[in-house]
């Protein structure tokens, strides 16, 4: 039974039409032009983004429970309503994320003007993969995860930058609407930092 | 008269073509100074004297005028009539009818006579009877509130049914020639000795010509066929199929939709506004000024709300402290002689009493009613008459207020009361009625449906009053010897009645309700004093009113003293209780919960609390576990004595629901003011209990009280202290402030 | 704009970002679906889109991609859905305002899980707020409905 729901949920996801979000330029610095120090500086900004509630609230661990935290959310707590993303990470086991976080394909960048409403983007809402657990994790932990192909979806730094370009949930972090605090910097600056960090050899503070 | 007349009349006739040969029955015509309202609308030459039963050639209609906010009184009223009328609920139509003095609430005054409701002494009864008589003549008020609808209707409506039945038997006797003594009644028919069934509807014409029977002995409850057993509520199928029309669902031809924005600083002025952007938005027809704000008129509710959000305002200051901390400061400074509301109870001498002292200071916050159906009203104003479709608990006052605003004679103002998606006291208020009337009065001839957005509903919820308590308890030799309770708060009644244009002289009993009348007659020393301030935000009756905060204060202090004395929380409460009916309630909750002490081992505990409100003693036991994610509620047991159970199924539902209400709000709800505005704008910040937090709740009803009582509110007060007491038993942490989640996490 | 609601094709002339809730209530007169919070906090507006529960206050009508079923389409007073039947059997409703949404959420739960445990119910129904506190009966009714469906 649950499998049937999962299947139909995934069908929904694949049926998405990904409409254009913000345009991002992916222009890495010249090979060899980034010092380790500069790369680590870029990393610290990346971590500011990764650990920001707009990102980390849905980068949660294997309990599959998204978080509500950050300014405008009050005391940090698990997502209300007993929400659990399940192993499917889309809530297929109980309540689909998309039950409330509906898909807003048209004019989605203005989809989130109502304070405290469920954020919407032009794709189905979901938790990040469990390997990418960021909530409450240190800079070193997140850094090592992000550069580990086994735990980052087998991505190079260029792939990560592309992923940031394509995945509209990530765009939402900088345009959360509804009085929510946006992730720091801009999407373009964040992509630039990823490229800088990558060209600089993806160093982590524990290297 | 045109359409308005037609609508009013049609609504009254509940969809039937006509009441040909209609007849109505009642018993109170002989005892009240009020004409039968049904006479006004029945066809000429039709005999009628009937506030509650109408029989025509088509059907039997029962008039159930008490407002239904979910408590099930619509169905219960019909059942009380049907019980004596010998008709099943699936054979009748039930209607709210139209407001009239004939439907005045004769029970609401009981609580205001100055005697605790367990006091049935001749003196108390004489004062109640006298007050009842005065109120009936001076201020006959229809009202549903204070858990009074069952006491009000319990005898009255059975009489109405019985008199109707006996008159129909006279009619059958006339028609058949069979003496009345040989006639029986069942399932909506008079049965002749040969088995022939003459339906009530077939007898309507003859019955209309007969002087109605006015004196009938009521049946012994042990002979009841319908009441006293679980019933199917008449509104249930509709509520489960989306086919029940609440006020917010009302539709009529050519209706327009309105949303409002009023100064979120309650009672503050609107200095200026700029609606130029809103006026350009799709579907927007107009922007009108109303008291303290504006209304957007549009062709759809959503468009009206969207446009209202596009208006820029300059709001005036709040007429109360802007910041929440200052509200508490006001209360802290209210425990003075000058602010004394009443020394409501003095037994023995608390100052001279011996024993070790336990002291505590307790806080109960502002809380919103936030019924799930946002406030709304549809009004059509014409020069001749006004029709209002909404749910309200004080029906005739709605008509009076709208008459005042529109200048239309009150007798031509007609409230068509609707089912409510909850109220919890919010629909005792009149702001939304006034606003809708101000809008419709500017748009005469056009029906206007005004709907609050949820955010507007939160911003303008006159919340439960904040209360602070200070207590000194004493214990000696393992026994509680003294309680000295001081309560400082606002007068809900003055705040509420002030908005109705009435003043309330003298002390407000709600300020100590639930504490002064605690029947701890075996406690030798007890003093309850209440202190009053009026310098805070406007507040209103919130389910259980004063007893909510006061029972929390009283029962938490008592529990602290019991634990300090080393006594068992249930046994010591039973020992202190000098009221037999309440003792049995406490014993019952002990029995159903298998009470075996408060301590259940590490991180697990139980708490018990008792509350007396609206004449009903209720005892609640809560069991919790302190998990690594916070407090988890494992089980709740509730026992109550309502005197006589009309519908055990519905009573259990109310007992469980009222407990969920009390627990949920105690856990996580408060309204706080910042910059004069409520900080909580929607349910994310004022959540209450959800299903996964709701433990199994076992309920038991007793029938030892000498009087029948309503149960909409009484389950609420003891639930919060029972939870707090359980948390103490499990963790050693004593929480003296609601909401509890400010001090401890919950699963 | 065309919509399929309760098996019927409906045409509405509205802007695409209007929430489905208000299209159902104010444009199509289907008032069984309730407005409670407008921000997906209460669940009173729950409907099905291609059989999956969705909060209609959050779903812009322009983003409706499937057939909509509302409480009126799930069953009728003369022909109750198993969940509605169980709700009546257990006399669940008090004010009843949230129950359209509760029933739609429960119906979806039972579509995918014909013998839900208390934990399954708590997980699936957590987004549906009942101010009257009918949760004990909602739980019992869902279990009854599951049994009815299994026996059917």
Residue stretches of chain B low in confidence (pLDDT < 50, at least 5 long) are 1-22, 25-31, 44-49
Number of domains of chain B: 3
Shape of chain A: globular
Mean pLDDT of chain A: 89
Strand order of the largest sheet of chain B: 10-11-8-18-15-16-17
Overall mean pLDDT of chain B stands at 92
How are helices and strands ordered from N to C of chain A? HHHEEHHHH
Fraction of helical residues of chain A: 25-40%
Condensed summary:
The complex is a heterotrimer of chains A (207), B (747) and C (152). By secondary structure, chain A is mainly alpha-helical.
Walkthrough of the structure:
The complex is a heterotrimer of chains A (207), B (747) and C (152). Chain A is mainly alpha-helical and 207 residues long. Chain A has one domain (2-7, 33-199). Helices cover 33% and strands 2% of the residues of chain A. A two-stranded antiparallel sheet of chain A has the order 1-2. In chain A, strand 1 and strand 2 (77-78) form a beta hairpin. In chain A, helix 2 (36-50) runs antiparallel to helix 7 and helix 5 (157-166) runs antiparallel to helix 7 (187-199). Chain A is globular. Chain B has 747 residues and is α+β, with helices and mostly antiparallel strands. Chain B has 3 domains: 3-105 and 141-241, Aldehyde oxidase/xanthine dehydrogenase, molybdopterin binding domain (Aldehyde Oxidoreductase, domain 4, 2-Layer Sandwich); 252-318 and 372-459, Aldehyde oxidase/xanthine dehydrogenase, molybdopterin binding domain (Aldehyde Oxidoreductase, domain 4, 2-Layer Sandwich), CATH 3.30.365; 334-363 and 462-742, Aldehyde oxidase/xanthine dehydrogenase, molybdopterin binding domain (Aldehyde Oxidoreductase, domain 4, 2-Layer Sandwich), CATH 3.30.365.10. In chain B, strands 10-11-8-18-15-16-17 form a 7-stranded mixed sheet, with helices on both faces. A 5-stranded mixed sheet of chain B has the order 13-21-20-19-14, sandwiched between helices. In chain B, strands 1-2-3-4 form a 4-stranded mixed sheet. In chain B, strand 19 (467-476) and strand 20 (479-490) form a beta hairpin. Chain B is globular, with a radius of gyration of 27 Å. Residues 1-22, 25-31 and 44-49 of chain B have low confidence and may be disordered. In chain C, a hairpin with a 2-residue loop joins strand 3 (46-49) and strand 4. The termini of chain C are far apart. The longest helix of chain C is centred in the last third of the chain and has 17 residues, at 135-151. Chain C is 38% helix and 12% strand. Chain C is of the alpha+beta class and 152 residues long. Chain C has helices at residues 20-27, 71-74, 82-89, 99-112, 118-124, 135-151; strands at residues 2-5, 8-11, 46-49, 52-55, 68-69. In chain C, helix 3 (82-89) packs across helix 6. Chain C contains 6 helices and 5 strands; from the N terminus they run E-E-H-E-E-E-H-H-H-H-H. Chains in contact: A-B, A-C, B-C. The interface between A and B is small, with 6 and 8 residues. Chain B: The chain crosses the membrane at residues 12-30. Chain B: This is Isoquinoline 1-oxidoreductase subunit beta. Chain B: It is an enzyme of class 1 (oxidoreductase).
């Amino acid at each position: 039974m649950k499998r049937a729901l999962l299947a139909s949920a995934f069908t929904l996801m694949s049926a998405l039409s990904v409409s254009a979000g913000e345009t991002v330029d992916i222009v890495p610095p010249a090979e060899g032009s980034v010092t380790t120090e500069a790369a680590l500086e870029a990393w610290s900004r990346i971590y500011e983004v990764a650990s920001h509630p707009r990102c980390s609230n849905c980068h949660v661990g294997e309990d599959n429970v998204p978080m509500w935290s950050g300014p405008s959310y009050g005391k940090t707590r698990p997502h209300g309503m007993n929400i659990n993303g399940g192993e499917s990470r889309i809530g297929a086991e109980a309540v689909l994320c998309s039950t409330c976080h509906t898909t807003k394909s048209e004019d989605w960048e203005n989809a989130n003007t109502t304070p405290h409403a469920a954020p919407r983007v032009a794709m189905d809402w979901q938790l990040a993969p469990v390997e990418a657990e960021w909530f409450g994790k240190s800079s070193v932990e997140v850094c090592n995860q992000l550069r580990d192909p086994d735990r980052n979806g087998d991505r190079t730094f260029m792939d990560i930058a592309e992923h940031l370009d394509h995945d509209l949930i990530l765009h939402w972090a900088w345009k959360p609407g509804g009085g929510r605090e946006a992730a720091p910097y801009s999407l373009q600056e964040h992509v630039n930092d990823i490229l800088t960090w990558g060209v600089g050899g993806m160093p982590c503070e524990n290297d | 008269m045109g359409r308005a007349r037609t609508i009013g009349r049609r609504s009254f006739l509940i969809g039937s073509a006509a009441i040909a040969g209609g007849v109505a029955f009642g018993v109170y015509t002989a005892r009240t100074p009020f004409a039968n309202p049904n006479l006004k609308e029945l066809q000429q030459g039709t005999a009628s004297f009937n506030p509650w039963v109408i029989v025509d050639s088509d059907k039997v209609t029962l008039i159930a005028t008490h407002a239904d906010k979910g408590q099930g009184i619509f169905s219960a009223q019909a059942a009380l009539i049907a019980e004596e009328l010998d008709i099943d609920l699936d054979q009748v139509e039930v209607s709210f009818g139209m407001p009239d003095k004939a439907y005045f609430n004769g029970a609401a005054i009981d609580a205001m006579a100055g005697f605790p409701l367990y006091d049935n002494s001749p003196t108390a009864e004489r004062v109640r009877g006298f007050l009842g008589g005065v109120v009936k003549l001076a201020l006959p008020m229809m009202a549903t509130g204070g858990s009074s609808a069952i006491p009000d209707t319990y005898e009255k409506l059975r009489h109405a049914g019985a008199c109707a039945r006996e008159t129909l038997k006279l009619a059958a006797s006339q028609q058949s020639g069979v003496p009345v003594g040989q006639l029986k009644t069942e399932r909506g028919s008079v049965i002749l000795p040969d088995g022939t069934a003459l339906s009530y509807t077939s007898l309507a014409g003859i019955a209309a010509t007969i002087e109605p029977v006015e004196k009938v002995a009521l049946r012994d409850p042990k002979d009841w066929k319908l009441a006293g057993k679980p019933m199917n509520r008449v509104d249930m199928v509709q509520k489960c199929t989306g086919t029940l029309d609440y006020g917010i669902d009302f539709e009529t031809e050519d209706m327009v939709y309105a949303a409002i924005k009023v100064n979120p600083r309650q009672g503050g002025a609107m200095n200026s506004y700029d609606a130029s952007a809103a006026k350009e938005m799709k579907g927007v027809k107009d922007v009108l000024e109303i008291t303290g704000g504006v209304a957007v008129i549009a062709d759809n509710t959503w468009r009206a709300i969207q446009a209202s959000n596009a208006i820029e305002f300059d709001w005036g200051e709040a007429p109360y402290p802007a910041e929440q901390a200052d509200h508490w400061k006001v209360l802290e400074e209210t425990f003075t002689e000058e602010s004394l509301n009443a020394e409501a109870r003095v037994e023995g001498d608390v100052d001279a009493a011996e024993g070790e002292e336990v002291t505590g200071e307790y806080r109960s916050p502002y809380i919103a009613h936030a019924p799930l159906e946002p406030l709304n009203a549809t009004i059509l104003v014409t020069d001749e008459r006004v029709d209002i479709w909404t749910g309200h608990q004080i029906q005739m006052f709605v008509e009076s207020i709208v008459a005042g605003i529109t200048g239309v004679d009150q007798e031509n103002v007609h409230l068509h009361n609707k089912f409510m998606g909850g109220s919890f006291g919010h629909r005792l208020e009149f702001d939304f009625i006034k606003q809708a009337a101000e809008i419709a009065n500017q748009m005469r001839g056009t029906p206007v449906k005004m709907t609050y957005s949820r955010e507007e509903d939160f911003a303008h919820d006159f919340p439960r009053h904040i209360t602070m308590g200070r207590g000194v308890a004493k214990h000696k030799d393992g026994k509680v010897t003294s309680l000295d309770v001081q309560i400082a708060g606002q007068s809900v009644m003055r705040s509420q009645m002030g908005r109705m244009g009435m003043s309330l002289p003298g002390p407000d009993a709600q300020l100590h309700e639930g504490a002064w009348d605690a029947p701890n007659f075996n406690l030798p020393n007890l003093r309850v004093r209440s202190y009053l301030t009026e310098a805070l935000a406007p507040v209103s009756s919130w389910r259980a009113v004063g007893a909510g905060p006061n029972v929390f204060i009283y029962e938490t202090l008592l529990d602290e003293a019991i634990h300090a004395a080393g006594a068992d929380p249930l046994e010591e409460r039973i020992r202190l209780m000098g009221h037999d009916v309440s003792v049995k309630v406490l014993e019952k909750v002990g029995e159903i919960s298998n009470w075996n002490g408060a301590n259940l081992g590490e991180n697990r505990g139980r708490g018990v609390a008792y509350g007396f409100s609206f004449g009903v003693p209720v005892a609640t036991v809560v069991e919790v576990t302190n998990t690594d994610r916070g407090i988890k509620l494992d089980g709740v047991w509730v026992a109550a004595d309502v005197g006589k159970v009309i519908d055990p199924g519905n009573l259990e539902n109310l007992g469980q629901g009222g407990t969920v209400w009390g627990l949920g709000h105690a856990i996580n709800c408060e309204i706080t003011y910042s910059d004069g505005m409520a900080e909580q704008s929607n349910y994310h910040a004022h959540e209450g209990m959800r299903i996964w937090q709701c433990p199994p709740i076992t309920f038991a009803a007793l029938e030892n009280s000498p009087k029948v009582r309503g149960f909409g509110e009484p389950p609420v007060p003891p639930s919060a202290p029972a939870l707090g007491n359980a948390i103490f038993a499990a963790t050693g942490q004593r929480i003296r402030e609601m909401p509890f989640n400010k001090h401890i996490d919950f699963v | 704009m065309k919509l399929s609601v309760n098996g019927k094709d409906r045409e509405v002339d509205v802007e695409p970002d209007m929430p489905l809730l208000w299209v159902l209530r104010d444009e199509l007169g289907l008032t069984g679906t309730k407005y409670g919070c407008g921000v997906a906090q209460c669940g009173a507006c729950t409907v099905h889109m291609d059989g999956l529960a969705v909060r209609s206050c959050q779903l812009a009508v322009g983003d409706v991609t499937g057939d909509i079923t509302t409480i009126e389409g799930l069953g009728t007073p003369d022909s109750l859905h198993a969940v509605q039947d169980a709700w009546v059997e257990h006399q669940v409703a008090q004010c009843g305002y949230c129950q359209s949404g509760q029933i739609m959420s429960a119906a979806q739960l039972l579509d995918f899980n014909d013998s839900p445990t208390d934990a399954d119910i708590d997980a699936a129904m957590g987004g549906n707020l009942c101010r009257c506190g009918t949760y004990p009966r909602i739980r019992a009714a869902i279990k009854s409905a599951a049994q009815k469906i299994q026996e059917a």
